[in-house]
Amino acid sequence: MAEISYRRHRFPPVIIQHAVWLYLRFTLSYRDVEELLAERGLDISYETVRCWVLKFGPMIARRLRRHRPRPSNRWHLDGMVIRIAGKRMYLWRAVDHEGEVLDMLVQRWRDSRAALRLMRKLLKKQGFAPKLLITDELRSYASAFRRLRLICPHVQGLRENNQAENSHQAVRRREHKMQRFKSARSAQRFLSMHAAVHNYLQPSTPSRLALDAPDLPSRGGEPMAACGRGRVIAETVSGSPCSPAR
After folding, report:
1. Can you list the domains of the chain with their CATH numbers?
2. Burial 112-131 (b: 16+ CB within 10 A, else e)
């Protein structure tokens, strides 16, 4: 993948990356990021931060996803209601049993066609079928499951799907902070970037530690985890771990 170019930008890459990281990692508005940067003596407007997020956010998210190990084979699927431009829409999300966001899809309907579209997209993106699929009691999942002819066990129940229910909380906080999403396209774009940052900064569980270590760059034999978490994204994108931008 080609390197991200920061040519014709007034500020160095490390500042741009830090501003994008602040917005995607924490529940902040563009004006909040502007104030945090101003506290460090940087005169950057919130509109500039918005342009950076829209331009560099998707590219940074793609690079972060490349550094993630393969997710587990136990998947949780669930949907949540969101309001976009006054219309009721559904955000379909898939997470593994450790809380890593696998995929998401904003759709207008909550039927078998929508569930089928999510599951097809998920299988194509991950490249393998799960060994266990857990959903709520919505019958659309069972219909899509049969049409795809999956052979793994399919468990339905509210309590069994707590992992997916809990993963909605971060999205709800951002939705409230942003005063709801303005369009389905912008919601899909932002949530995709947000999920990539969320996954990359997830605490490694014992079953994932062995997979995380080889994929992360190191600094003189010191694991990347020893660097500041706030700098991990910038260092991964720039390709020079824990070193200042050139």
Report:
1. 1-67+216-246 (no CATH), 74-188 (3.30.420.10)
2. bebbbebbebbbeebeeebe
